[in-house]
Amino acid sequence: MFEKQQNPQSLLTLLTDFGDRDVYVGVMKGAIAQINPKLKVVDLTHQIPPQNIAAARFCLMDAYLYFPVGTVHVAVVDPGVGRKRRAIAVEFAHGFLIGPDNGLFSGVLSHSPAVAAVELTNPNYWRTPNPSSTFHGRDIFAPTGAHLACGVPLGQLGTQINPESLVKLEIAKCTQSGNMITGCIQYIDHFGNLVSNIPGSYLQSKSWGVLVGDKIIPGRETYGDREIGDAIALVGSHGWVELAINTGNARSHLQMNLGDTIQVVIESD
């Protein structure tokens, strides 16, 4: 059942792969301002690698808990724009998600499941009833997000859909066998740090390292715990095990990429 938002004006965030060279982000903000110029808009990032849904999934999952309950998150990494993928709005315990139904919300929803969802079929809340076939961020997602943040009930935005039908972006699951935990690289940040899907909570009060080839990279507390140029494994601020190079780039140094397997070895007591 849909319910009207309690807060008549919420915060709105934007996450895209549009970069900052072109006007795309600016005109999305213009579309929002046409609805409510006083609405607070926060840029999460616009530097998602082009069409990289997995990176968008991770960044949104990493960010949403730092915002007040009721925040509207508009995320547009949309290689399927203009085709038959759905445009959606999703309510979950911490707020709302608006964007393409291509799996980029699956990270957030794996931690905080959807309460309700709609397909955005009501053009009354679009910028125009004849949206561009290549820029739904400007014509559908941004204005719909603004209306939602200003108190329009989710159910008015379109047709109710089953949250279980939302597209999930599948990544390899984290598994443990004996003293070995196996996961994968789920994100690579600006510094080239390799972020796995292995939760740091698995390693509390344990000595551990990450197996790369025939070597074990030791687990430490912080980057400076190794010499400059050395590889290090640690639990990052996001709570996941990551591989880094002190003042270097782990992706290029270790020749690892998104989806690659990573194995943590826990030392015996």
UniProtKB/TrEMBL annotation:
Q: Which residues form the S-adenosyl-l-methionine hydroxide adenosyltransferase C-terminal domain?
A: 183-263
**A Pfam family matched in the record:** SAM_HAT_C
Q: Which UniProt keywords apply?
A: S-adenosyl-L-methionine
- At the top level, the lineage of the source is Bacteria
User: Which residues are in the S-adenosyl-l-methionine hydroxide adenosyltransferase N-terminal domain?
Assistant: 12-158
Which InterPro entries does the entry link to? SAM_HAT_C, SAM_HAT_N, SAM_OH_AdoTrfase, SAM_OH_AdoTrfase_C_sf, SAM_OH_AdoTrfase_N_sf
The record's listing under PANTHER family reads: CHLORINASE MJ1651
In the record, the note on similarity to other proteins reads: Belongs to the SAM hydrolase / SAM-dependent halogenase family.
Specify the protein name: S-adenosyl-l-methionine hydroxide adenosyltransferase family protein
Provenance organism: Pelatocladus maniniholoensis HA4357-MV3
